[in-house]
Design brief:
With 176 residues, the protein is mainly β. It is built from one helix and 16 strands. Helix content is 6%, strand content 43%. Strands 1, 2, 4, 6, 9, 10, 13 and 14 form an eight-stranded parallel β-sheet that branches. Strands 3-5-7-11-15 form a five-stranded parallel β-sheet, with no helix packed on it. Strands 8-12-16 form a three-stranded parallel β-sheet, with no helix packed on it.
């Protein structure tokens, strides 16, 4: 299993040349860690340096995209805030697990907090708050063929506009 430790709150882009020993900029960003984990040939865990506990990562480079063939787990007491500029994350392929995060102020057409267009998303002990979509899924949208698991998580102040379908089944089993 590959392990990556995020060491900066900055949202630095992933250029493809980063390694754990030589991240770009001022440390390993969440976006860079996701890029490295997506390129890894094995399951990966992304955690956060102790100095980042309780802190906020403000996304300035757009939605965080997951396109992997393996499982990526992101665990830690950190807030990921899109500041109403974009959605927060999109799962295109692979299996993504969020554990202990806060996902906030995503804005987009579908799944402003998380858009699961393929693969699967497991949300455990995670809070979604103040995400807003214009079509469906203020917090989370799940496309046909994709999967979602929700365990011990909370959703508050989620918003969906234009008479859209905006609901989420709260359960501890796979839906899709």
């Amino acid at each position: 299993m590959a392990n990556f430790v995020v060491t900066t709150l900055l949202d630095e882009g992933f250029g493809g040349s980063e390694t754990m020993g030589t991240p770009d900029g001022t440390g390993l960003s969440l976006r860079e860690a996701i890029g490295l984990a997506s390129a890894a040939s094995e399951a990966s865990t992304i955690s956060f340096a102790p100095t980042l506990t309780g802190q906020t990562i403000e996304l300035t480079e757009g939605v965080l995209q997951f396109a992997a063939t393996q499982q990526i787990t992101i665990a830690g007491d950190v807030t990921v805030d899109a500041a109403s500029r974009s959605g927060v994350l999109e799962v295109i392929s692979g299996a993504v697990i969020l554990d202990g995060l806060t996902i906030t102020r995503g804005s987009g057409t579908e799944g402003a907090g998380a858009n699961v267009s393929g693969g699967s998303l497991t949300v455990a002990n995670t809070t979604f708050t103040s995400n807003s979509a214009s079509s469906s899924g203020g917090a989370i949208a799940v496309s046909s063929g994709a999967n979602l698991d929700v365990v011990g998580s909370s959703f508050c102040r989620e918003h969906c506009q234009n008479n859209c379908r905006c609901h989420l089944s709260f359960c501890d089993r796979r839906t899709g």
